[in-house]
Amino acid sequence: MSASSMAMPRTEEPRIEILVNVSTGETRAAHLENGVLQEIHVQRDATGSVVGNIYLGKVQRVLAGMQAAFIDIGLPRAAFLQISDMVRRTAETQDVAPRIQNRLSQGDRVLVQVSKDAMSTKGARLTTDLAIPSRFLVYMPYNPRIGVSARIENEDERERLSSTVDSIREELGLTGGFIVRTVGDGAPHHALAADMRFLATVWNDILTQSRIVEPESLLYGDLALPIRMLRDMLTPDVAAITIDDEEAWREMIGFTRRFAPEFTDRALHYTRPIPLFSQYGVEEAIERALQPKVPLKSGGFLIIEQTEAMVTVDVNTGGYVGTRSLEQTVLRTNIEAANTVARQLRLRNLGGIIVIDFIDMVDSAHKEQVLAALKEALDADPAKTTVGDISPLGLVEVTRKRTRESLQQLMCSACEACNGRGFIKTGETVCFSLFREMSRLAHARAAEELLILAAPDIIGLLLDELSGAFSAVCADTGLSVRLQAEQLYTPEQFDLVVM
């Protein structure tokens, strides 16, 4: 479902929907605009993101040469804290750079927050500049400034929000600063005040716990994915948030009644027999997002390759020959590619350095058009991006902030059969797909007894690490299941045979 088109003024606002699929061991949330998947979030019980969590850490080692430190926070790998991510002390002047060896020593207790999940062989990235989010605000206990989201563009509203938050802070006697989030646009005085009182209570609880708990302890954890999507994304622009789990839906209703009663009727419970993501074409879109080739409507295509160092995107005209001149054909393909690249970066959650190899253009005006189309398309991305100029070879460098694993890193692993040159789905990903297929058959009343044929490693997962989840699915669906290992099956292959 490619959402590419020639750059043109938008005549109407897109219809935005959030879909939340809750299954045993895994929760997924999809962000759709006009029925097209823009973003996918995945949270697994065993490997959930820890970004935003606040820990009482213990300094393991100080690296003066790198101006950084390794901090134990209770995760499998020590986390990493750089001096640039530490709050500057009042006594430190702007003219003299602080030294980490003057701030930390081995064995010190330190309050830290995860800013980036562990990736590959690297531990999580930390900061001491803590930020605690609520629905309308983000509280920064060590930063005195008051800011307003850049996506709130009306200057009068920005001024109202800034002065309101400042006056409430003074009334409540709070220290620290606040950032008004995008969803705070139009928020009334009493709602902002309630958020600030809530955040002050959370911060006091964190400080109290930090004095009495042992190091490597979690002091504050972010909300579950369905509620987090509500908190972060439920704005007047969102037409509906649809969830397929009754218990999670009731939690969402409770959250909206408390914090956003005007949106309560937009939290919908999906009860149809066809799986939610299948009904909306999301499953197919996710599968396509794991493939390197992305077709364009014009007949051209992109090749997206993710490496350790960077992401490369190659633009090709393919079978598109146009109806006018070669330059117009190249321009049209490049503009369509610019829009598609922006969506694919967000959908695949690709970050770091991205190099886009557009088809060579001679006309400088055409180059400017393509660059403008790319920048406009990237404006909708919540992640921070920067775009360089087009080089003489038609290359454009883009950087995109990376805080969590890409879709490929999350759902796939290096293929042993090809010595890591390609990727296959992890055993967990295959098992969760199998669970969803079991639920689909049960809801459709198409089976009561099943024979599951799968690769030996998958059968091993179902009987070992994921045995609890597998038993829960069997109990929920009421299916009687037999397992059979097939030596000739690939790791991604499985069959459900109705008995």
TrEMBL record:
This is Rne/Rng family ribonuclease. Gene3D superfamilies: Nucleic acid-binding proteins, Ribonuclease E, catalytic domain. It comes from the Bacteria. The keyword Magnesium applies. Keywords: Hydrolase, Magnesium, Metal-binding, RNA-binding. Residues 52-129 form the S1 motif domain. The keyword Repressor does not apply. Coiled coil: none annotated. Its cofactor is Mg(2+). It comes from Salinisphaera dokdonensis CL-ES53. It holds the Pfam family RNase_E_G.
